[in-house]
Amino acid sequence: MSDFFPRSSTLHESEEPATNAVAERPARAPLAARASRRDPSRPEPILGARRLAKTYRKNKHVVPVLRGVDFEVATGQFAAIVGQSGSGKSTLLHLLATLDAPDEGRVEFDGRRIDNLPAAERDWIRNQQFGMIFQFYHLLPELTAIENVLAPLMISEGVFRYWRNRRQHTARAAELMDQVGLSHRLRHKPREMSGGEMQRAAIARALITQPRVLLADEPTGNLDSQTGEEIMSILRDLNKSQELTIVMVTHDNAIAQQADVIVRLKEGRVERCDAEDLRTSSTHVA
Asked: Is 26 left (phi over 0), alpha (psi -120 to 50) or beta?
């Protein structure tokens, strides 16, 4: 069993590990094995993609989306992925999060390959190591804001352990909601909240397990410009004050310019660019 997955987890030893049919090219060493060859002035990557390829098929139609993508982000960096609509931005993010499997290549986290781990171990990584926020929030409508924030802990701990720890968990959730400016919305349900408030609640939910990496798929895409900038202010503060590693997909160049590292997806491959490149192009890339 992988070092990622703690023995105290709810996975039983008798469970059948999930199979993985990912095609793998030979050769390139994992992040940890390449560490000694890296420039010592460069920070170590915490999350990376190696020669990722992904093709979608529908009937006779074959649509190649990613064609050998290499990408990495270092601990404490804020990385933005931009590109035209359909360029594969969200596909790349989903592969990094192990929500989907590549046809070829590998995803590495903290020096180890993770895309071919058993399903329960990938679930544990997403629950404990990755925080995720999406364009459409994905809050559960029947739960209050604070219950939505607590949901990852309810899932990871189970009923009895969660019930024993509920007071400290609730205090932690309330603290996070105050941090994102939602202390007045603890008992409100999503239908009683604005889009910006729902995204703030989604950010608090993503942080409740104290993840090492935050993956954000168009976090401002469904918001007006002022509210979007408020969300970006929260993300920048998390990145700077807590050294939280963030990988963000966005179609908005103005938003992307606020990141430390900017990469553009074009024709299924990565191009490194900078804020000046984005300023000389249109306000939106899609």
From this structure: beta
